[in-house]
Amino acid sequence: MELQSDKVTVQKSQQELFNFLTDVKNYEQIMPESKEKFQVISEDTFVFALKGMPEIALQIKETREPEYIKLGSTSDKFDFSLDVEIEAVSENQSMAQLFFHGKFNTMMAMMVKGPLKKFIGNLSENVAKL
């Protein structure tokens, strides 16, 4: 299953946004309001839970400074990644877009598509507010 957010403009340079998003404790600031749990596990891994959803652990799996960050699930049950692409617009402005790539069976995909689309939409909207 493939989903993507709209591109959003962020009032931070490409490098500033990259630095912000490669520090896992900062993800708490961009989580949706429905967040029930957020905990940093290590310098590259955090766990979060949203209302009505299971707990999910994400780990920074890959980076290409300053334009790309790949977060991946640490669970075999939920095999997915969340990629962040950051484009420079000006000295203190950038564009960000989120891409969700998940390997789910058809039934699971139907159940999670709506909530996931809303989740990545909320994340990108919150990134735009930084």
- Rg (CA only): 14 Å
Beta fraction of the residues?
35-45%
Detail the poorly predicted runs: none
Name the overall outline. globular
Number of helices: 3
| Derived structural class | alpha+beta
The span between the termini is: 28 Å
What's the total count of β strands? 8
Percentage of residues assigned to helices? 25-40%
The profile of the biggest β sheet is: 8 strands, antiparallel
* CATH topology call: Alpha-D-Glucose-1,6-Bisphosphate, Chain A, domain 4
Order of helices and strands: EEHHEEEEEEH
For the record, what is the CATH homologous superfamily label?
Answer: START domain
**CATH domain class:** Alpha Beta
Describe this structure in words.
- It is globular, with a radius of gyration of 14 Å.
- By secondary structure, the chain is of the alpha+beta class.
- The longest helix has 23 residues, at 106-128.
- It has helices at residues 14-21, 27-30, 106-128, and strands at residues 2-4, 8-10, 35-42, 45-50, 56-64, 68-73, 79-90, 93-103.
- It has 3 helices and 8 strands.
- The mean pLDDT is 94.
- A hairpin with a 2-residue loop joins strand 3 (35-42) and strand 4.
- The protein has one domain (2-128): START domain (Alpha-D-Glucose-1,6-Bisphosphate, Chain A, domain 4).
- Strands 1, 2, 3, 4, 5, 6, 7 and 8 form an 8-stranded antiparallel β-sheet that branches.
- 27% of the residues lie in helices and 45% in strands.
- This is SRPBCC family protein.
- InterPro entries: START-like_dom_sf.
- It comes from Salinimicrobium sediminis.
